[in-house]
Design goal:
heterodimer; A: alpha+beta; seven-stranded mixed sheet; five-stranded mixed sheet; 29 strands; globular; B: alpha+beta; about 35% helix; about 15% strand
Chain lengths: ~725, ~160
């Protein structure tokens, strides 16, 4: 038996860098680098790290974010190809591994398009301008008489044309311009088109290589037995029986709370692990249970929190006060592909093949764990069978590297579904205290939301400035322009490992805000749509919108009104429903986008059945409508599973749920028809991966109230 | 260890593995047919679906000993000559997002169409309900099956 150490990686995770960058107002320039990689040679024209053009007329565009289903390998190259005036058919895509050339490569926060919109456009435009210059020099004509289109430069007067491949060598000799013109959206030929995703054919043929599918000669498979109690440690283990399994080649401790079994097949590693006899020190949380978590949130509610937003003075408003509490449980991401990573440690270097949202964090954490320089760690980014935030962690990569080092072989560490469910990081459980003061007509004149929840970043030693979790600026905005508002965050502690799960705190905040607004509207005898539109209306005296400044983002009430009205119109909000059908509405703004949803249900044996969801979205310029129409329903169905059943509970310090039987996602029989409508916009593009998640639960609970007069204030609905 | 002979994608294949090994790991680790996926290991998600003598089964819960002498079709063998009509429909309807579950979805759908060439919505739901998709592609899966059914005059799996 040999031992290894697993240093707990410290410092800001990549996800936090994105969040912190946005909070600091630098969000839109994160990753804003156009580094010259110095690779331009006779054979390759590469004015920056994102694009290479070769004399054989091949254009390679490098994607520095990770593909987890959101279509990023298609969307980002479309942006560059647009400015390049390339022929889409000649584009080849290359996935970047961890690198320092591309800024922060974290794929999260619905940020890939919104933070690389400028760098990708400038990268393409720079190459285009140099290719035009190369053509003008070749022909000896004025630069202004040449135009780029469809992968060539044309000289209309002489009807001459040279392909980008023809021009690559000369373009590579020219100085790189620093200030290049960008196209106007009215001239777009690629951005805004329904181009098929580049990764679809390989995925339907079974040829796509996800992390779990990567193979290399001599590769072994490892399963880890991890301490089942949160914060517990390994005492000792007996591996006599495990060693009898054919193909088991190595068994050893990993860090201080796991044992690895390495074999020449997954099944051998699974059987070896099953036969391990391990004694655990259950540690300080051996009595932890869900009731204690709820109690700790209630206790913390007595504390004063940090102010997220304040307008007027809610404490001085007279009138009728209404209040309600909402609560949400821990939830698990549960992507279809369980955690895995392949690592090959060879003396002083380590190479990884990782399905990861954080290649740079994997590199740095593995280097730290192995005690080698980050330059000696190469991270290859594979396709991912879903991410939803689970792969913002680097645990699987560090495990693989450590096991490869001690087992002295290339090793794929594979997690089972139960491993993934029980040794994960979880959406924080939360408690929400909402109150309002309403006037005689039932309109709110004061609104208070106290969010009581542990901090994901805080748990990692980065609680954020002024005790405000760095995610909240992107996820906790209140866009209604009321005269008195107080949004407060009470940061709590929990030993339960926390993670960023699709839409992060926006799910909890929207459930509380929008459910409460629905309650206020109905109590006032008003239509929930009209109630919201009234609160979002222009100030009557000044005749202008009451836009909301929330940290560094300005939220536009007009844009929120537009998505609400669009969703309502398309859903036929004012038209009567057939007997037995009911509907609810909600809206939310997060990740710089605005979404409203109308949910239509019937009740079957006290269980809501969602038939139709109409989603209206304002996400600025749409890069690829076809991908948008995948992402929005995807978020809706994910949110429906969260709302109906997602609940991680704890008994004796252990996660109770283990597989898709007791943590049951939505299946086809429960999946609604989702209609997607967008507000036409030429504003810069904003997030689409997460913003359709938050409005679903409150809209659904509003529909359930319409059907049953029963108000749901705690998720999941079917608990 | 046991020597087991089975037919995989039309080829007779002899393997030597412990007889209780789930077919999934034989396909993935021994035969390098990685299009068949591991999702739950308990027959709950359908990512590992393959055909056993034409019927959709969960390879994660099927020991190799049970398939000796039988014929297995995986996603790699589904389209005998190029793409299966379902694979083409999946491309046309742009079904996959992450794509991880889709090979299992297609294998289940292929077994459905082999028996029920023009399935109703209810028949599709009943057949596909065991296949989970965390990206929420269910409605596109439904459309793609209808599209494939409409375009197929002779039913079914290519083998």
């Amino acid at each position: 038996m040999s031992t290894m150490t697993t240093p707990k990686s410290a410092g800001l995770s990549r996800r936090e860098f994105v969040a912190a960058g946005i909070a600091a107002g630098a969000g839109l320039v994160v990753g804003f680098y156009l580094p010259h990689r110095g690779r331009t040679s006779k054979q390759v024209f590469s004015p920056n790290a994102y694009v290479r053009i070769t004399p054989d007329n091949k254009i390679t565009i490098v994607v520095a974010r990770s593909e987890m289903g959101q279509g990023i390998r298609t969307a980002l190259p479309m942006i560059l190809a647009e400015e390049l005036e390339a022929d889409w058919k000649q584009i080849e895509i290359e996935q970047a591994g961890a690198s320092n050339l591309y800024g922060d490569q974290t794929t999260g926060g619905s940020a890939s398009v919104r933070t690389t919109w400028d760098p990708m456009r400038k990268a393409g435009a720079t190459a285009r301008e140099m290719l035009i210059s190369a053509a003008a020099l070749t022909w000896g004509v004025a630069r202004s008489s040449c135009t780029a289109q469809n992968g060539s430069v044309l000289h209309a007067a002489s009807k001459r044309q040279l392909s980008y491949g023809d021009l690559a060598e000369k373009a590579g000799t020219l100085p790189i311009p620093t200030d290049v013109p960008l196209k106007q959206s009215k001239d777009y030929k690629i951005v805004g088109q329904r181009l098929p995703r580049v990764d679809t054919p390989s995925k339907v043929k079974g040829e796509a290589v996800f992390g779990i599918d990567f193979r290399m000669p001599g590769m072994k498979y490892a399963m880890l037995s991890r301490c089942p109690t949160i914060g517990g440690k390994l005492l000792n283990f007996d591996d006599k029986e495990s060693k009898n399994i054919s193909g088991v080649s190595y068994i050893g401790k990993v860090g201080d709370s796991a044992v690895a079994v390495v074999a020449d097949s997954v099944w051998g590693a699974m059987e070896g692990r099953r036969l391990l006899n391990v004694n655990w020190d259950d540690g300080p949380n051996k009595d932890l249970n869900t009731a204690m978590v709820k109690e700790s949130l209630k206790q913390a509610a007595a504390k004063k929190g940090a102010s997220l937003y304040s307008a007027g003075d809610v404490s001085k408003v007279a009138g009728r006060k209404v209040s309600a509490e909402y609560e949400l449980p821990f939830m698990a991401h549960a992507p279809m592909e369980p955690g895995n990573c392949t690592a090959y440690f060879q003396g002083a270097t380590c190479e990884l093949w990782a399905p990861t949202q954080v290649p740079q964090d994997c590199r740095d954490s593995v280097a730290q764990a192995l005690g080698i320089d980050p330059d000696q760690v190469k991270v290859n980014v594979t396709l991912m069978g879903g991410g939803f935030g689970r792969r913002l962690e680097h645990d699987y990569a560090v495990e693989a590297a450590l096991v490869s080092k001690t087992a002295q072989a290339p090793v794929k560490v594979l997690w089972t579904r139960e491993d993934d469910m029980r040794s994960s990081t979880y959406r924080p459980a939360s408690l929400h205290q909402l109150s309002a003061v309403v006037d005689g007509a039932g309109w709110p004149v004061a609104f208070t939301h106290r969010l009581i929840a542990p901090s994901i970043s805080g748990q990692r030693g980065q609680p954020g400035p002024n005790g405000i979790d760095p995610d909240l600026p992107d996820e906790a905005a209140f866009v209604y322009g009321l005269p008195n508002i107080s949004l407060e965050y009470v940061q709590t502690e929990t030993p339960v490992p926390l993670g960023w799960m699709r839409s992060v705190y926006a799910l909890q905040v929207a459930f509380a805000n929008e459910s409460f607004i629905d309650e206020l509207a109905l109590a006032a005898g008003k239509d929930p749509l009209e109630y919201r539109l009234h609160m979002l209306a222009q100030n009557q005296n000044q005749n202008k919108d009451q836009d909301i400044s929330f940290f560094t983002t300005t939220w536009h009430t007009a844009r929120m009104r537009a998505v609400l009205q669009l969703a309502a119109d398309k859903a036929g909000w004012t038209k009567p429903l057939p007997a037995g059908r009911f509907r609810g509405i909600a809206c939310f703004a997060c990740f710089s986008s605005y979404v409203a949803e109308v949910v239509e249900i019937s009740m079957e044996n006290d269980t809501p059945r969602v038939h139709r969801v109409v989603a209206a979205v304002d996400c600025g310029q749409v890069v690829n409508p076809s991908i948008l129409e995948q992402q929005i329903p995807g978020g809706v169905v994910y949110a429906l599973g969260n709302a109906l059943r997602a609940k991680i509970t704890i008994e004796k310090g252990r996660i109770v749920q283990g597989n898709f039987d007791n943590y049951a996602p939505v299946r086809m029989e429960e999946s609604p028809v989702v209609e997607v409508y967008t507000v036409p916009s030429t504003e810069p593009p904003t997030g689409i991966g997460e913003p359709s998640v938050p409005p679903l639960a409150p809209a659904l609970c509003s529909a359930i109230y319409a059907a049953t007069k029963k108000r749901i204030r705690a998720l999941p609905i079917l608990s | 260890m046991a020597d087991i002979t089975l037919r995989v994608n039309g080829s007779d294949t002899k393997v030597s593995v412990p007889p209780e090994t789930p077919l999934l790991w034989l396909l993935r680790d021994t035969l390098a047919l990685t299009g068949t996926k591991f999702g739950c290991g308990a027959g709950l998600c359908g990512a590992c679906t393959v055909h056993l003598d034409g019927a959709a089964i969960r390879s994660c819960s099927t020991p190799v000993s049970q398939v000796a002498g039988k014929s297995i079709t995986t996603i790699e063998g589904l389209g005998a000559n190029g793409l299966h009509v379902l694979q083409q429909a999946w491309i046309t309807e742009e079904v996959p997002q992450c794509g991880y579950c889709q090979t299992g979805q297609i294998m289940t759908a292929a077994a459905l169409l082999a028996k029920t060439p023009n399935p109703s919505d209810e028949e599709i739901t009943r057949a596909m309900n065991g296949n989970l998709c965390r990206c929420g592609t269910y409605e596109r899966i439904r459309k793609a099956i209808h599209r494939a059914a409409g375009g197929t005059t002779t039913a079914g799996s290519a083998r």
